[in-house]
Design a protein that fits this description.
- There is one protein chain.
- By secondary structure, this protein is an alpha/beta fold.
- It has a single domain, classed as Bira Bifunctional Protein, Domain 2 (BirA Bifunctional Protein, domain 2), CATH 3.30.930.
- It is 35% helix and 24% strand.
- The strands form two sheets. The protein has an eight-stranded mixed sheet with strand order 7-8-9-10-6-2-1-11, sandwiched between helices. A three-stranded mixed sheet has the order 4-3-5.
- Helix 1 crosses helix 9.
Length: 264
Amino acid sequence: MALADREWRLVREKSHPGPTNMALDAVAAETTAGGGPRTLRVYRWEPSTLSLGYGQASETVDWEYCESEGIDVTRRPTGGGGIYHDAVGDVSYSIVVPADEVPGDLMECYSLLLEPVLDAFDRMGVPASLAEKSRPALYRPACYLREVHPAHDVLVGGRKISGNAQYRTRDAVIQHGSITFARETARHLAVFDDPGVGADEFDARVTSVRGESGIEREEAVGAVEGALAEWADADAGGWTDVELERAGELVGERFADDEWIRRR
C-alpha cells in the first residue's frame, strides 16, 4: 500500500513535557481527520516522563519517587504497560494517518507502519527485527518487561529495544513508539512501586541503540527522521497556532489532569 503520494509533514524532534506530547498526537489525529496533512513526528520527553498505559492501575506507580526526581507522569491513549521516557535515553516517534488509508487488520497495519522504524534501525547500524515469537512477562505494569509480542515489539538478539502501539479514532490511526537510545535501568525500575525485578533481569531483557552501535543521540534522531521522511516522501513542517492552542486545551482537560491520570 503506497502512502508516499499523499500530503505528509515531518515535525522534527522537539522537546515537550509528557502531557504535551500526548496532546500533540491527539491534535495530529484531529488535523488529518479534518482533511489536513498526515503527520510524522520525532519527539523528546523533557522533563523525563512515565507514560502509563490506558488501563494501567495508578497503584503500580511510585508517585513519591517520580515527584522527588522531577519525573512527569501522564497517561497514553494506547494500552500496555508504563514506559519511562528518559529525556536523553528515549527517542520517540508518531505516525498519524487517515484510517481509510491503512489496513483495517491490526497485524497488517503494524507491518506497514513499522517499515520506517525498522529502516531507522538499519541506518543506526542496529540489527533489529520484530520479535519472532512471544515471551512471558517479567512484570506486566512495565511495557519493556511485559509479554513480548511479534506484532509490535522490536528486538535485538532477543532483547527489546523498541515498543510500539496503535489506537484508532473514528477517522484516524495513531501509531507511536519508544526507542531506547540509552538504557537507564535504575530509574526505569524505580518509577514503579515494587516491581520485583532487579537490574540484572532488566538488562537481560532490554538493550539500547548506544549499547548496540555506539552512535551519538543526534545521529540516532537523524536516522529516525530520515527513515520516516523517505518512507512517506514527507516535507519538513510544524504545528499551526490553532493546533498548538488545541493541544494546550487537551493538556489541561486530560493529559496533565491529575484525576484523569490516576483514575484507574
